[in-house]
Specification:
Elements (H helix, E strand, L loop, with lengths): L3 E4 L3 H12 L4 E4 L4 H10 L8 H7 L2 E4 L6 H6 L8 E4 L15 E7 L14 E5 L2 H13 L3 E4 L5 H28 L5 H19 L7 H4 L2 H10 L2 H20 L5 H11 L17 H8 L5
Helix pairs in contact: 9-11, 9-12, 10-11
Length: 300
């Protein structure tokens, strides 16, 4: 097996490095500049020596660069790499461009996984690769040893690929955090327990069936229900809800679940006045929204 060197002891790098070591790949060294990085390297890679970047590069056949996206090119430019080596970064957003100046064979290899700071199982994880033909066999072998899968994305599509992941995963955290705040403001003692079964089922159904999994008031054509929601939400939560509701109306109309008249009624409600003024948790104070909704007064 190729000797692997790790540049950077962040959460992703140490998790992938630990998984490679567990799969039998020899790790010849890791760099760790901060106290937190050194602690993480000691904990997850206890038998791997902490070295300088130059020492790691000189000892490795495959140099795994696990540094922040904006630093990849700068870090790689300073490594003493040769054409007999491979240089691999873990960024989802970047392709091969940050590696162009290096003599080593370049590889962009992104695991579609979140790394909380400890050991992570990569079994079944999809790794998205961009690499020249000379590296394909190595990539396939490394990922297979981790129990993962490989898909190949062209250089010009890396940003689009990463945007899809961020929109589906990072923005999901934003959405759920807002939902938890709204439920808590409504008096729900355990918002996470309330959401978990619904969100889990929705996620599974959507990944399996796509837009056919859509349920809820928009899919049912319940315009008044959505209007009531908008009347009790404020500021950032109101804007997020309205924007996602517009996209959901488009989705339901496109597959025929909403007739044109109902879609137009939704549009009229969603394009109405945007409430202003800061209200805790994005909600109107008790009693105010209900009264305005009943009387038809536009929320302010």
């Amino acid at each position: 097996m190729e000797r692997i060197g790790l540049i950077g002891a962040g959460r992703a790098g140490t998790a992938v490095g630990a998984a490679l070591a567990a799969a039998g790949h020899p790790l010849v060294g890791v760099t760790a500049r901060s106290g937190a990085s050194r602690e993480r390297a000691t904990r997850l890679l206890p038998h791997v020596p902490v070295l300088t970047a130059g020492e790691v590069a000189e000892r490795a056949d495959v140099v795994l660069v696990a540094v922040p996206d904006d630093l990849i090119g700068e870090v790689v430019d300073q490594l003493p790499l040769t054409s007999a080596q491979y240089v691999v970064h873990l960024s989802g957003a970047h392709g091969l461009e940050p590696l162009r100046a290096s003599e080593a064979v370049p590889v962009a290899l992104h695991p579609a996984m979140t790394f909380p700071g400890g050991p992570v199982s990569l079994d079944g994880v999809m790794f998205t690769a961009t690499a020249p033909d000379a590296a394909r066999e190595l990539v396939e072998r490394l990922v297979k040893s981790l129990g993962g899968q490989v898909q190949w994305v062209a250089e010009e599509h890396r940003a689009r690929y990463h945007a899809g992941l961020v929109h589906g995963a990072n923005h999901l955290t934003t959405l759920l955090s807002q939902a938890v705040d709204v439920l808590r403001a409504a008096g729900v003692a355990d918002p996470a327990a309330t959401l978990r079964p619904l969100v889990t089922a929705t996620l599974d159904n959507t990944l399996r069936s796509g837009h056919h999994a859509l349920t809820g008031p928009i899919a049912r054509g319940d315009v008044d229900t959505v209007a009531a929601h908008l009347a009790v939400l404020r500021d950032r939560v109101h804007r997020t809800y309205a924007e996602l509701a517009r996209a959901t109306v488009d989705l339901a109309a496109a597959d025929g679940r909403l007739d044109p008249d109902t879609a137009a009624r939704f549009a009229e409600v969603l394009d109405g006045p945007v409430p202003d003024g800061l209200v805790p948790d994005g909600l109107v104070p008790d009693g105010v929204a209900g009264e305005r909704y009943r009387t038809g007064e536009a929320p302010r």
